[in-house]
Design a protein that fits this description.
The chain is an all-alpha fold. It is built from twelve helices and two strands, in the order αααααααββααααα. The protein has one domain.
Length: 299
């Protein structure tokens, strides 16, 4: 029996968000590496894989987009944003802050709403105003009760929110865009690999600081090289889902990833989840529910 485009769309979306949600398990396998080196390898392996795929498709237009000044500046900016987002996520997961990443991706859609309001003068529905208010209350509660701003969550949400906004303006296919973004990020990855982060301060060692790579076993090399697949596969699945599903369906399914990450943080990694975190998450979860309801089309 053939599946309908909508069913296939849901399958693609579920696949994408399950992979994104379970990525903390993947990065924990590489916890022995410094997170900045992991970011560098993720950029390089993603570029290699994208280059192979696009070359096999005889698609070289992604190498010419830099000729247009506007696109060139946008791609440099999106490349830097995704680097910050990727690097912060890896560091947070391997520093025992998976719950912070979960909170960040719960509030990302609400950050996108605020960006649309500020930069595109979009009108918000009453439920969306309420969602933003509940989310802000949750963040403020967490800040007051812990005595510090949840900067990891906010940085993840803001960088990915701005990244998504700029990607809409670029209107470049996902793989081509990622290829261009990783190209502009290569200098950063090379620079990171030239530093050793073993001590309190980073030390410039050149590539001699990578001598430890000769001691890692083959299976660890295999896991590390899979960072390109871990970056590109969910992006491909998401792009396929976006072609087949309405915004409301995508808006609902996107909360699958932070929910999986939340469950991993509490039940697998055993991260502490005190009462004030629960109180804050209740407000965030309420905001999420209001946002999902606001996406329902009027009949």
């Amino acid at each position: 029996m053939k599946t309908t485009p909508t069913v296939r769309g849901f399958l693609y979306a579920i696949g994408a968000y399950v992979i994104w949600g379970t990525l903390p398990l993947y990065w924990r396998l590489l916890i022995a590496f410094d997170s900045r080196h992991l970011l560098a390898f993720r950029i390089l392996f993603s570029l290699i894989l994208v280059s192979v795929i696009l070359t096999a498709q005889k698609n070289f237009t992604w190498l010419t987009v830099f000729r247009e000044r506007k696109k060139r500046y946008f791609l440099i900016l999106t490349g830097m944003l995704i680097c910050v987002n990727w690097g912060l996520f890896i560091w947070a997961v391997n520093s025992g802050k998976t719950l912070s990443t979960s909170l960040g991706y719960y509030i990302t859609p609400l950050v996108s709403i605020c960006l649309g309001l500020l930069f595109f003068r979009e009108r918000l529905k009453p439920l969306q105003w309420a969602a933003v208010a509940f989310a802000l209350t949750g963040v403020l509660l967490l800040t007051i009760l812990t005595g510090r701003l949840p900067w990891v969550s906010l940085m993840l949400a803001v960088t990915f929110g701005i990244y998504g906004m700029l990607k809409k303006k670029l209107a470049i296919p996902a793989l081509e865009s990622l290829g261009s973004e990783t190209i502009v990020s290569v200098p950063l990855s090379v620079l990171l690999l030239c530093f050793s982060f073993d001590g309190a301060k980073p030390v410039f060692t050149g590539f001699s600081g990578l001598s430890y790579l000769s001691d890692i076993p083959v299976y660890t090399w295999f896991i590390l090289s899979a960072s390109g697949v871990a970056s590109i596969l969910p992006l491909y699945l998401f792009a396929q889902a976006a072609k087949r599903l309405p915004l409301s369906a995508l808006g609902f399914s996107q909360f699958l990833a932070p929910t999986i990450s939340f469950m991993l943080g509490v039940f697998v990694f055993g991260e502490i989840f005190p009462f004030h975190n629960m109180l804050s998450f209740i407000f965030i979860w309420t905001a999420v529910i209001l946002y999902i309801v606001s996406l329902r089309p009027k009949h």
